[in-house]
Amino acid sequence: MFDKILIANRGEIACRIIKTAQKMGIKTVAVYSDADRDAVHVAMADEAVHIGPAPAAQSYLLIDKIIDACKQTGAQAVHPGYGFLSEREAFPKALAEAGIVFIGPNPGAIAAMGDKIESKKAAAEAKVSTVPGFLGVIESPEHAVKIADEIGYPVMIKASAGGGGKGMRIAESADEVAEGFARAKSEASSSFGDDRVFVEKFITDPRHIEIQVIGDKHGNVIYLGERECSIQRRNQKVIEEAPSPLLDEETRRKMGEQAVALAKAVNYDSAGTVEFVAGQDKSFYFLEMNTRLQVEHPVTEMVTGLDLVELMIRVAAGEKLPLTQDQVKLNGWAVESRVYAEDPTRNFLPSIGRLTVYQPPEEGPLGDAIVRNDTGVEEGGEIAIHYDPMIAKLVTWAPTRLEAIEAQATALDAFAIDGIRHNIPFLATLMAHPRWREGQLSTGFIKEEFPEGFAAPEPEGQVARRLAAVAAAIDHKLNIRKRGISGQMRDPSLLSFQRERVVVLSGQRFNVTVDTQDDDLLVTFDDGTVAAVRSDWRPGAPVWSGSVGNEPVAIQVRPLLNGVFLQHAGAAAEARVFTRREAELADLMPVKENAGSGKQLLCPMPGLVKQIMVSEGQEVKNGEPLAIVEAMKMENVLRAERDGTVSKIAAKEGDSLAVDAVILEFA
Q: Where is the ATP-grasp domain (predicted)?
């Protein structure tokens, strides 16, 4: 076994690998760029080596820098994590020449499977069912359109060396193929250093199901069940689960056996994932193979009880797999949510900045469930523009799927993040969505269910009453605190608390009466319903945890002028609590309207201007592309929202812009 390994990665996955290495008694070496000098993974490792400037192309993607770090520290092996160099055939070859072990598959397997075009050819030879498509390299937009016309729409344009949703576009027409080809090729070049793309048929109403495989250097390969990753946005996974609510035992076995056959055909000898696109009728087709550890591997670990990172390290050291296919058992259900630094109300555009608040839910048992949080950040850390926007992976396990979903919803409500925009409100909304809870999934789920984008829903029903009760309890606690302030002109004992209150939740009104009973606060609504509220919440805490009635509840709390902002179960509302007289006076106050600015194109996120596509004086039509802004490795096309004439261009290509910076103005 190795004495010391180097992790050629950063963030969450670097921390994840370090934890397993520590458990195995193996010393670790972290590498870091200028942007990651104070990162969590650097502090966790036994040693750390600086490898260059913030851009990945000048640090994490430089093989020579990684090998030099190994020689400098005496690391015997390298774990690549995912992304960066994890699927570069040249990396394990260079490591081998330097006498360093690669904790991953052999270069031949990476060459055969890591390239999306070659992997489809290998899958066809191994008699794995494949999606119809053109497996050659496409040289021009015209060539791409010709192929798409022959295959039939819709089609998927995909980077051969791609992954993580980068360099991928769905096209419904010839025009979309031409534009998608250019964007996929550009993203592929900047993200992977390889601009080859191919085209294949896009299966309508598909589901994304993948099989986890693991092999050793003695010819043994097994599969560890499946994961369903159908909840995607821009071809990037958002929620994953294991097992899949679609599959039965027979389909699971068929998919698993095909995945193993493919892995054996290329002498696969590490952890890898064979991805399939599945129809609602349980038909399935090979999509691609990822020759690395997947982001969503924790859900497989939770239902199998296996540590995939440990297995990777052991097989890389030459050990045989410790179990056979018959010994693989699936237990319970696991759900993973990817917590991203992005603004769901602005079409999920990336968000950067400092984490002024970062308080994840407590890991460990939650009733019959288990909570796990894989992360690589901490409070006070900074989310930079240079890397993937993932903050954490929140995972819950429970005996059944619905229990795992309920545990996930509770954990999301208890996850406090501030200082940047994030997608927790969206994730919490998904957990309450009936279609998700019923398992009626497809990769078009988000587009179909949120066609106008996402806005946190107004609370209604029991959620609204729960928030109203908690708002009244928070107000009561704050009033008690105010009475305890010393030096007041009137003795606090002479003041009486008015029991009758009006709770206003974003326009909804609840007349309540507040009483105390032992450790509970009793909130009585107009219809006579009584909610017993109990919590040890203290003013200033970002999460209110306690119970309403007999239900455990976690609610996000942010202070507002004369109120609080509450978020729970995906719903969000400004809450203000008045006496009855105060409520009457508040109704008389005028509402300030925000002035709009429809004559400017504003940068929707911090990013780099890649291209200005219009000129001053040019007339543009609604929907016409105006500019391309790149942020966190994704290119975003900004389009005109109505017809007009460009009067002034305020930014130029190569500019780094802040959010809401003016790009151009209209006459």
A: 120-317
- β-strands 77-79, 101-102 pairing: parallel
Q: Both tokens of residue 381?
A: 């850390």
On the question of pLDDT at 495 being above 80, the answer is no
Q: What does the alpha-carbon distance between residue 391 and residue 566 come to, in Å, rounded to a whole number? A: 22
For residue 276, CA distances in Å to 234, 247, 288, 289, 609 come to 18, 12, 7, 9, 36
Strands (E), 506-624: 508-517, 520-525, 530-535, 543-548, 551-560, 563-568, 571-579, 600-602, 607-612, 619-620
Question: Choosing from 226, 241, 288, 630, which is the catalytic residue?
Answer: 288
Which pLDDT value is given to residue 37? 95
402 pLDDT above the threshold of 90: yes
Among the listed residues 80, 138, 450, the one whose alpha carbon sits nearest the alpha carbon of residue 290: 80
DSSP assignments along 312-329, one per residue: HHHHHTTPPPSS-GGG--
Beta strands 4-7 and 77-79, pairing class: parallel
Q: Are 571 and 459 in contact (CB under 8 A)?
A: yes
Band of residue 639 on the pLDDT scale cut at 50, 70, 90: confident
Nearest alpha-carbon partner for 483 in 505, 502, 468, 498: 498
Phi then psi for residue 586, to 5 deg, are: -65, -30
**More confidently predicted of 108 and 203:** 108
Instruction: Provide the whole-model pTM.
Output: 0.83
Q: Are 212 and 451 in contact (CB under 8 A)?
A: no
Residue 519 has pLDDT above 90, yes or no: no
Q: Provide the pLDDT for residue 488.
A: 65
CA distance 497 to 476: 9
Q: Identify the CA nearest to 535 among candidates 514, 515, 511, 551.
A: 551
CB 21 within 8 A of CB 35: no
Chain-centre distance of CA 148, in angstroms?
A: 31
Asked if 42 contacts 61 with a C-beta cutoff of 8 angstroms, the reply is no
Structure tokens at 443: 């990769």
Q: How many CA atoms within 13 Å lie on the side-chain side of 193?
A: 12
Give me the pLDDT at residue 595, please: 47
Alpha carbon distance 52, 400 (integer Å): 46
Query: What pLDDT shows up at residue 498?
Result: 84
Mean pLDDT on 70-84: 97
- pLDDT reading at 594 higher than 70: no
**569-589 per-position pLDDT tens digit:** 989 999 999 999 989 888 887
3-state SS class at 573: strand
Cα 137 to Cα 495: distance, rounded to the nearest angstrom: 80
Mean pLDDT across the chain, nearest whole number? 91
User: Whole-angstrom Cα distance, residue 166 to residue 1?
Assistant: 36
Q: Does 630 participate in catalysis according to the annotation?
A: no
How far, in Å, CA of 355 to CA of 377, rounded? Answer: 9
Rounded Cα distance between 71 and 51, Å, is 13
Which one has a higher pLDDT value, 292 or 488? 292
**Domains of the chain and any CATH numbers:** 2-102 (3.40.50.20), 131-199 (3.30.1490.20), 205-448 (3.30.470.20), 459-482+496-585 (3.30.700.30), 598-664 (2.40.50.100)
